[in-house]
Structure formats: C-alpha cells, structure tokens
Design goal:
Number of strands: 16
CATH class of one domain: Alpha Beta
Strand content: 15-25%
Strand order of the largest sheet: 4-5-15-10-11-14
Helix content: 40-55%
Structural class: alpha/beta
Shape: globular
Number of helices: 21
CATH topology of one domain: Rossmann fold
Largest sheet: 6 strands, mixed
Length: 492
C-alpha cells in the first residue's frame, strides 16, 4: 500500500508518511486506493471480534493499509495498544441500545483521558516508537487541540524516549477539566502553548511550521492531529467494530451519527464505507460553528475568520477550517489532485491555507455526493444539547456529554423528519466528567467523578503563553529542542 498527497506529487510508503505527517506540498496523505471488504470478510471479523477482541480486529484491518511493517510486529503493536488495562474492555468500543429508539450508543471514551481520541492515539504512539527505534532517530510531535486531542496525545506519548510533544491550545477555549488534563502534566519532554486565538489559528500554526521544509527537517517535526493518516486509519477500525456489534446480517445498512469539528472521526466512517462497510446515512453533527453543515447543505465551503468562531458548550467542535475535509474533497473529485490542490491553496490574502473557501454548488460532483457518499448534516444549539442531555438521562438513564448530545440531537431530528432510517450508531466522544458545568446546567447536578481523575483540578498547571505568530513558535521550539537537558520556565 502506497500513499499520496491530496495535492499530487510522488507516492510514499506508510512508515515514511507516519513520520512526515503533513505532506511537503501542504496536502494530506491518502491511500492510493481503499482495500475492499466483502460480506464474507465481515462475517469472519464478527467472529474474530467476539472471540479474540478489538486488538485482533484492529490487526486485521490495519494490515490492509500498513504493508511495510512485518505482520508479527503489527500484531504485537495492536495487542499492546488495545487491552483491558488501557480501555477496561476487551471489546474497547462496546455498543448499547438507547431504549427502543433505534439509536445505539457507541462508547468510545473508555481510554486513559476519557475521550474517543485515545483509541487512535494509543496506537499512534506505539507506531511512532516502533519506527523511530527501527530508524534510530527521534521526532518532535507538533499538534493543535480544541480540547481532547492534546491530552490524549500527551498521555499516549509520555515515556517515549524518542518523542517530544509540543501542543498548541487556544487560550481560554477549553473546559477546566480539559485544561487541567494537559497543563498538569509535568514532563520535560512535553510542552503546552496557550495561543492567543482559536483552534483554527493553532491548526494554521502547525501547518505553517510543517510547510517550512528546513525547519521541519532540522527539528524532525511530525504530526499527531488527524492530518496524520495513521490516526485516521486507526479510527477506521472502530467504525467496523461498532457496526459488527449492531448489524444483524453481513449486508445490513446502518447509519452513523458523528459529532465533528475537524471532520476526522466522520471521515474514518466514510473510509470504511468506501471499503465496503454497509453504511446507510452518514450523519454529520455540528454546533453553532456550522461551516460543515453549510457546505453539505449548499456546496459552499465558507470558513469563518477567527473572530467569528463561537465559543460554545461543545468546545471540541469550535472549528471553522476542517482540515480533513480536504481528504473527502479528494474523493469527491475522484482523486484529481490538481483540482484538490487548486481548491485548498486558494487564498485571498496570500496566507497559508484556506481563507476564501470555494463554491461547488453548481458542480455535478457535489450534486451527486449524497447519492455517492450518503452524508447528511445538521447542527445543534446550546439549548438543543442541554435538552438532549436531559432527555437521555430522564428517559434512558444515560449520561452523555455535550458533543455526544449534538450527534444524538441531529440524529433524532433527522429521524423525525423521515430523512434517515434506523438503526443508527451514535458516537459517544467523551465522558461527561470533562464537561461538568454543562451537565450541571442541564441536570442540576455534576457528573460523578471518575476515580482516576480524582484531584485533577487541584494539581498545579503550567503552559507557555504564546502569540499567534509562527516565527515566535519556531523560535521557542528551536530553543527548547536544542537544549535537551532543560525546559524554559513555564507561565500560567
């Protein structure tokens, strides 16, 4: 299996794109082709998941994409990433019905940081460690987070001698719990930057540093966000795992409801669908920052400037520029890298990345996208999410976080309109403990404390205050990475 950039260029093997992260031309790596999964293979995987667990399924799926790591080593890595000591369940992603509504809740948040991102990042950390050891080299993982990616990445990379982590966070845009998870980590190989801006600014900084070839090569810059194709592939696994637990036949079409901001989690279901997973509707749920809903409703992709990105009760979706949309557009234009590059390098002011967006409303490729890919989108308000949290608790005894509530709300809304059918697998993306204020507002009480997080909010926190300036980030990183023995003082 080889990989190519959404913007063209030569192909590369998995191990190279794993460490490179973002392609040199600014594009995102995608598989040259999707492996084909047949109903017979799905039937065998159903037995495998039931008898041997998630790790065995992950090995079988990832081996279709990762062909330059010996199969025995890949099996060892998946077994190391996915076991009960890490995820409290051999199945890793158990699924339960929501009463008789036809909606099933996929529990994806049983990992170390109580977020779905643990599932992919635990695997990514082990892949990094394996490949860096094999090459006898090191890596600086540079990432951006709107809330959960940062802590999931840092917990997954802790203790890896060949990896340092620098994470950019939007100042004052995370919940107190999310901030404490990251800023309380006291590890000289991990640093957090509190950037004066929103998530889109942090993501743009990551892409800008990656686009500086000399800086990237000198300081071994790699990616941990879903711009890294390895993380996307690891997410594909639980699309299959959850479907296998719900489907009553090997050809039953099931819908998925996925809350999304950066379009990574939902893209993984899209990839599984293209491989042959019987998906009916792919329900995209957004919040007040409804750029993606607008695009799938109209064909107009219109990213907002930073000042127009709302701070909401679902902060992990407070995103305007969804980087993974580029991978979907690459599929939409049938792998036409020239057109993909043209769409995503358009810029009204000459800056890196998308500012002006694009309009496909009258293009035949967009007009047929629903029929080809099945994506239907909806949005939620703060009031919608509070009402959904309250209803799920009152009617079903289920406590869900505001992001999961966004997905359940949009799914229920589309069901009521007759636009989608059941069954629907709704992705739970985080445990409610991470969003105590919103849960308290919806229900009048705070979610129960998870034992492993007791005292987290009382721990000392430290982060580097940073301007939204790529040169300042470069300067700080260069100083930090040059001095491997000490870390400059933190401020908070």
């Amino acid at each position: 299996m080889r990989y190519q950039s959404t913007r063209g260029g030569s192909t590369a093997n998995f191990s190279d794109v794993l460490l490179e992260g973002l392609a040199a031309d600014g594009g995102l790596y995608v598989p040259e082709k999707y492996p084909v999964v047949t109903p017979a293979l799905l039937a065998s995987w159903r037995v495998l998941l039931a008898e041997q667990g998630y790790a065995a399924l992950a090995h079988q799926i990832l081996r279709l994409f990762i062909t330059d790591i010996p199969d025995a080593e890949l099996a060892r890595l998946t077994a190391s990433a996915y076991h009960e000591q890490v995820f409290a369940s051999r199945v890793v992603t158990p699924v339960t019905p929501v009463g008789d509504t036809g909606i099933w809740l996929a529990h994806l948040s049983n990992g170390p940081t109580a977020a779905f991102k643990d599932i992919a990042l635990q695997m990514l950390g082990r892949l990094f460690d394996y490949e860096l050891t094999r090459r006898d080299t090191w890596l600086t993982v540079l990432g951006a987070t709107s809330g959960d990616t940062g802590s999931s990445a840092e917990y997954a990379m802790r203790g890896l001698a060949r990896v340092k982590v620098a994470m950019l966070t939007p100042h004052a845009r995370m919940t107190p719990f999310q901030q404490a998870q990251m800023y309380s980590i006291d590890d000289p190989r991990i640093v957090n930057f509190a950037v004066a801006g929103v998530f889109d600014d942090c993501q743009d900084l990551v892409k800008a540093l990656n686009s500086d070839a000399e800086f990237k090569a000198t300081y071994h810059i790699g990616a941990v966000n879903s711009i890294n194709v390895a993380r996307l592939l690891a997410q594909v696994v639980y699309a299959f795992a959850t479907w296998l637990q719900v489907a009553e036949s090997d050809t039953q079409r099931i819908s998925f409801a996925v809350p999304t901001g950066n379009f990574g989690d939902i893209l993984s279901v899209h990839v599984a669908h293209q491989m042959g997973l019987p998906v009916d509707a792919l329900i995209l749920a957004t919040n007040e920052n409804n750029v993606l809903q607008e695009f799938f409703a109209t064909g107009v992709y219109r990213p907002r400037p930073a000042h127009a990105v709302h701070a909401t009760s679902s902060p992990s979706m407070d995103i305007s520029k969804a980087s993974n949309l580029e991978r979907f557009i690459w599929d939409l234009v049938d792998g036409d890298s020239q057109r993909s590059a043209q769409l995503f390098t358009h810029s009204d002011d000459g800056s890196f990345g998308v500012t002006g967006g694009f309009d496909l409303s009258h293009d035949e490729i967009f007009v047929t996208q629903r029929e080809r890919f099945g994506i239907v989108a909806g949005a939620s308000s703060h009031t919608d999410r509070l009402a959904t949290i309250a209803r799920m608790w009152r009617e079903h005894g289920l406590l869900i976080d505001p992001h999961t509530a966004a997905g359940v709300h949009v799914a229920a809304q589309l069901l009521a309109k007759g636009e989608v059918r059941t069954p629907i697998i709704a992705y739970e993306t985080a445990l409610p403990v991470k969003f105590a204020n919103t849960i308290c507002e919806a229900l009048g009480f705070e979610p129960p404390t998870v034992e492993r997080f007791a005292g987290l909010l009382q721990k000392p926190q430290h982060a580097i205050a940073m301007a939204n300036d790529a040169n300042q980030v470069k300067s700080w990183l260069a100083s930090w990475l040059t001095d491997h023995q000490s870390v400059p003082p933190h401020t908070h």
